[in-house]
């Protein structure tokens, strides 16, 4: 008996699969791409993963993805104001890339639709990594557009790039490819947002070549009735560094996957994340980090705030290969659980095959410290305000670790907005 | 920081090719035919002179087992087990109540001698000498704890309990300590009430199999308010070829009772793999405390990975009453494959669960072990300390779950799991599941790189102790915390591990 064999597809699964035939003629790509799309569809026909699949242990996608909307958007989508004023905005609106503005020196911009048409996307990128890579499969089957950025060797971009994936309901499936060549430096902001009942998926491939340095900010602010499936993959070259900052502040069902491969000796990966979970959100951040080379360093810190009926999940797996001696990996996941109606589950995994490494993880779940609260209240601050201050401070700590003042200010403003809305 | 030489040497001393208990006892056995079917289950039940309801219970378990699938989520790999190629019952012939040393099968005596159990205790084990009586076999005064005669032993040899010592003295205190087969015959009301109440028949694949075919094991009942006057212990020995051992242990501590129970196990060295699938159920009622300790030393297979015991065990304690406490301590060095998660269900308010573990894997051993702490009641607390050491080509995984339910107000957990790798062909893995559904829950999980703080090291070194020694001192002190959770009787075996330092440990 195969535990994962599902005889009948759910209504949502059926809608997802059936959508392909109506959508197919509009999707870009050469013959190879079509083969990949068909393969991805075959996977979807076998049904979405349930919690019996270890990678989906806390997110039963089959049950949670209960509605798959039609492809047609409800309205026109418009680009949003950039997080940082002078950023080059490259919007994907309702699944179509609209950015035509010339970028800073050292940057080449192409649309993903063109690249798919040319057959430029490596075949394995449009292939699900395994039978249960639902995010990869859904996106591979339906991806319509996005951007392909090449950052020239040694180029240091003088303004940030903001990639936007914006919908006005319906289904959107975008993809971003960024190649940061050797010695280059860039700040990239990714916005995932929209309005209305939607299914949005987004897959990112980032290559950070030898000695390159990238700061990537991913801001997910989907509306309350949207399902968002994201997958961020990065590969790090020798002595390169990547700082990835993720802020989740919306969505009904959110799955954000992060797959990072430290393939180059001396590479450094920093992941900082803030999950602001309110309402009935189910938000799952799942990370797999492979240390494949010696002397690689990684630190991961997530701060989660859970209110209302929200449920949060953090799965972080660090794998250290036999050759990756002197790996230094530290992971922390701290949660403030402020409600009895919600929950938070974490699974920080270590898988280690090298004997000279320093790896560790910590995970805590707790309410606000009574002593801290007392300290503030003793100074005449009422309880509600005091609690608010402490919760904000708890997450702001992670944001403040980013070095760029403008970025910190912009993110803290988003934080304030979220708390204003969710009390 | 890689492991220091001292640690490497210590681990080598207990490497798989150093297994001391691999001998075989040539003793005449009665075997059930190979295979598993309803007739075999009836045969076992008949052998044990069980009442009809028990036979039905087993058959029901067998039915459920047939509908279940072997679990595959653990990080262990092994060829498919042919459950029809095993003997489900093996017992040494003529084992009914030996009266003097001469009447005990000498082979059996030799076995216990070889297992390193002290002679005086061996006499006790064979049931010929009452506690406190001098022994002619024992010339010099022994200083080990067994010789104090304060340990009652239930010796399980293949499928049967050979003898249980100190039954009478225990009975005076109201404590029932006997084999589970005897308990089924003589205390059916307790068995019917509690058997399967912590680990339900269909809890998992191996628990279902065990429920169908379990052959023996120990039963302990400590009545209200009684502090068990001595340590209780079971020694499991697999001897016969091609057999599986399926023992079942049930321990009940009534209101305010206390009992400490030890478990040891060994098996002969063979090329084939043998299956050991046990179920242990602990029940602690209001204010009761159960302490369960294991030194698991099944044959681990040879240095090529041939042979060894598959140890697929379900152990679970139910803190059913308020203010109850269950504590698991384990030292795991044996078995080719270990799959065990001694757990606590913290049902009663203010109940407490503890898990202390040292797991050492060598050769081709695979360990996937850990614990579950399920917080259901109010103000429940739990503590997990796990140390994994892998060497050779082994894989050592800690897998643990801590969860707080909606009503588990003020649940607290502290978890610490460290592991150490020695050599380049082994793996160490940590898979914790932390689930909180309550705002007042406080969970801390940590797996730190180094147990030794600069301050501690400085403190010791400034007294003129060199760094290496200082590290060893601090680390030994730390490991002792876990080992001291073991009753004295087992400390000897565990001592071998004390020297292992855990510096440079990885999460």
TrEMBL record, chain B:
Q: Which segments constitute the SUF system FeS cluster assembly SufBD core domain?
A: 236-478
Q: Which domain of life is it from?
A: Bacteria
Matching InterPro entries, A to Z? Fe-S_cluster_assembly_SufBD, SUF_FeS_clus_asmbl_SufB, SUF_FeS_clus_asmbl_SufBD_core, SUF_FeS_clus_asmbl_SufBD_sf, SufBD_N
User: What processes does the entry annotate via GO biological process terms?
Assistant: iron-sulfur cluster assembly
Residue span(s) of domain SUF system FeS cluster assembly SufBD N-terminal: 169-228
Database matches in Pfam families: SUFBD_core, SufBD_N
Entry's family note: Belongs to the iron-sulfur cluster assembly SufBD family.
Return the PANTHER family for the record.
FES CLUSTER ASSEMBLY PROTEIN SUF, UPF0051 PROTEIN ABCI8, CHLOROPLASTIC-RELATED
Stored NCBIfam families: PRK11814.1 (NF008773), sufB (TIGR01980)
Which protein, by its recorded name, is this?
Cysteine desulfurase activator complex subunit SufB
To which species is this protein native? Answer: Nitratireductor aquibiodomus RA22
**The organism's lineage?**
Bacteria, Pseudomonadati, Pseudomonadota, Alphaproteobacteria, Hyphomicrobiales
């Amino acid at each position: 008996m195969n535990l994962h064999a599902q005889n009948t597809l759910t209504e949502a699964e059926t809608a997802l699969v059936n959508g392909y035939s109506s959508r197919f003629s509009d999707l870009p790509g050469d013959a190879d791409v079509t083969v990949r799309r068909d393969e991805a569809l075959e996977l979807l026909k076998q049904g979405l993963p349930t919690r019996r699949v270890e990678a989906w242990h806390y997110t039963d996608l089959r049950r949670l993805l209960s509605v798959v909307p039609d492809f047609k958007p409800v309205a026109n989508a418009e680009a949003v104001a950039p997080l940082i004023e002078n950023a080059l905005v490259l919007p994907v609106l309702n699944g179509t890339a609209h950015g035509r503005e010339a970028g800073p020196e050292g940057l080449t911009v192409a649309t993903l639709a063109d690249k798919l048409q040319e057959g430029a996307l490596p075949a394995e990128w449009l292939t699900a990594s395994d039978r249960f890579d639902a995010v990869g499969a859904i996106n591979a089957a339906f991806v319509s557009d996005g951007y392909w950025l090449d950052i020239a060797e040694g180029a240091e971009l003088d303004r940030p790039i903001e990639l936007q994936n914006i919908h006005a309901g319906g289904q959107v499936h975008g993809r971003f490819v960024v190649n940061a060549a050797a010695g280059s430096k860039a700040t990239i902001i990714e916005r995932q947002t929209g309005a209305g009942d939607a299914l949005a998926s987004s897959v990112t491939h980032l290559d950070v070549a030898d000695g390159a340095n990238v700061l990537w900010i991913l801001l997910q602010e989907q509306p309350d009735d949207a399902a968002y499936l994201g997958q961020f993959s990065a590969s790090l070259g020798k002595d390169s560094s990547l700082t990835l900052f993720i802020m989740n502040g919306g969505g009904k069902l959110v799955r954000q996957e992060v797959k990072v491969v430290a393939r180059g000796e001396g590479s450094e990966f920093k992941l900082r994340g803030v999950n602001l979970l309110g309402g009935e959100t189910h938000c799952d951040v799942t990370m797999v980090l492979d240390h494949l080379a010696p002397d690689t360093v990684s630190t991961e810190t997530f701060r989660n705030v859970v209110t209302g009926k929200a449920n949060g999940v953090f799965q972080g797996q660090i794998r250290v290969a036999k050759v990756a001696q002197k790996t230094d990996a530290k992971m922390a996941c701290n949660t403030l659980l402020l409600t009895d109606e919600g929950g938070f589950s974490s699974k920080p995994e270590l898988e280690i095959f090298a004997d000279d490494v320093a790896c560790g993880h910590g995970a805590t779940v707790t309410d606000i410290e009574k002593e801290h609260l007392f300290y503030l209240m003793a100074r005449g601050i009422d309880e509600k305000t005091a609690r608010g201050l402490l919760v904000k401070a708890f997450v702001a700590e992670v944001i403040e670790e980013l070095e760029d003042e403008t970025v910190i200010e912009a993110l803290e403003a988003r934080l304030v907005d979220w708390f204003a809305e969710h009390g | 920081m890689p492991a220091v030489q001292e640690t490497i040497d210590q681990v080598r001393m207990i490497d798989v090719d150093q297994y001391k208990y691999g001998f075989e006892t040539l003793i005449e056995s009665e075997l059930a035919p190979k295979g598993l079917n309803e007739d075999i289950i009836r045969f076992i039940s008949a052998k044990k002179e069980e009442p009809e309801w028990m036979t039905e219970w087993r058959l029901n378990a067998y039915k459920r087992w047939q509908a279940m699938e072997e679990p595959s989520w653990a990080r262990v790999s092994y060829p498919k087990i042919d459950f029809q190629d095993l003997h489900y019952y093996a017992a040494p012939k003529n084992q009914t109540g030996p009266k003097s040393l001469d009447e005990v099968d000498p082979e059996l005596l030799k076995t216990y001698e070889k297992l390193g159990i002290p002679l005086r205790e061996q006499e006790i084990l064979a049931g010929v000498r009452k506690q406190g009586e001098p022994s002619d076999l024992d010339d010099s005064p022994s200083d080990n704890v067994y010789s104090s005669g304060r340990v009652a032993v239930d010796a399980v040899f293949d499928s049967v309990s050979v003898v249980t010592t100190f039954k009478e003295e225990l009975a005076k205190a109201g404590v029932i300590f006997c084999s589970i087969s005897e308990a089924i015959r003589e205390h059916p009301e307790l068995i019917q009430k509690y058997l399967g109440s912590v680990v339900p028949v269909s809890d998992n694949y191996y628990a279902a199999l065990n429920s169908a075919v379990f052959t023996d094991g120990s039963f302990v009942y400590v009545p209200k308010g009684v502090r068990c006057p001595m340590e209780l212990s079971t020694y499991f020995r697999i001897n016969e070829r091609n057999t599986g051992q399926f023992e079942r242990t049930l321990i009940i501590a009534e209101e305010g009772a206390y009992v400490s129970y030890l478990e040891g196990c060994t098996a002969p060295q063979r090329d084939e793999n043998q299956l050991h699938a046990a179920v242990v159920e602990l029940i602690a009622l209001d204010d009761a405390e159960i302490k369960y300790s294991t030194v698991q030393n099944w044959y681990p297979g040879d240095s090529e990975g041939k042979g060894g015991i598959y140890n697929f065990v379900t152990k679970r304690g139910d803190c059913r009453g308020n203010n109850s406490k269950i504590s698991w301590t384990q030292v795991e060095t044996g078995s080719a494959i270990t799959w065990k998660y001694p757990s606590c269900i913290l049902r009663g308010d203010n109940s407490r669960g503890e898990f202390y573990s040292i797991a050492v894997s060598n050769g081709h051993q695979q360990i996937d072990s850990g614990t579950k702490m399920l917080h259901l009641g109010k103000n429940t607390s739990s503590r997990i300390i796990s140390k994994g050491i892998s060497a050779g080509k082994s894989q050592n995984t800690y897998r643990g779950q801590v969860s707080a339910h909606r009503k588990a107000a003020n649940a607290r957990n502290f978890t610490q799991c460290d592991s150490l790798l020695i050599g380049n062909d082994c793996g160490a893995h940590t898979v914790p599941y932390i689930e909180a559904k309550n705002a007042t829950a406080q969970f801390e999980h940590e797996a730190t790189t180094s147990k030794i703080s600069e301050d501690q090291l400085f403190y010791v070194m400034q007294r003129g102790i060199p760094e290496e020694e200082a590290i060893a001192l601090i680390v030994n002190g730390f490991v002792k915390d876990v080992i001291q959770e073991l009753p004295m009787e087992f400390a000897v075996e565990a001592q071998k591990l004390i020297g292992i330092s855990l510096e440079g440990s990885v999460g």
